[in-house]
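Hey, weird one. I pasted the Lysine N-acyltransferase MbtK sequence into the form twice and got a warning about non-standard characters only the second time. First submission, copied straight from the form history:
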Amino acid sequence: MTFAFRPLDPPADAELLHRWVTHPKAAYWMMQDARPADVERAYREIAADPHHHALLGLNDGEPAFLMEKYDPAHRELVGLYEPEPGDVGMHFLVPPTDTPVHGFTRSVITAVMARLFEDPATRRVVVEPDVSNTAVHALNAFVGFVPDREIDKPEKRALLSFCTREQFLARHPLAARGVPV
């Protein structure tokens, strides 16, 4: 699978994102009760934030997943760990579908990581999923994340995990040569 990315357009994409983030399978996104206007507002704030960015992942030109990257020295993890130069925080969401494709979510997280490491300044990706989200822990391990410790965020108990460029490329060596992952 080959994916493309485009910046999220909050007014144009809010309805689509609303369907994604309020679905029961997106419970860990913590927007279950959000209205479309709430989703648009949240993503307008991200679009205006120099330390947080949202992208739509496209599959054959159609929106297929959401990717967020953030600077953990300024968002999400401030005061919860000591950020290192080159740290980039990441969230991703694959919406539910009536026609699942085997391996799709693994392909998505691999493409997200490859996209983050396209930036030579990115040395390590940081994630902080809910400790009870075992499905995402398995996906994170698939691309090379190593759990560090549990941390208490205001909204959840999280598993702080890291993946260096070297750990990712050891799992996905073709990504270093620009081969679609």
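That's the output from the first submission. The warning seems to come from a hidden character in my clipboard, not from the data itself. The first strand starts at residue 3 and ends at 7.
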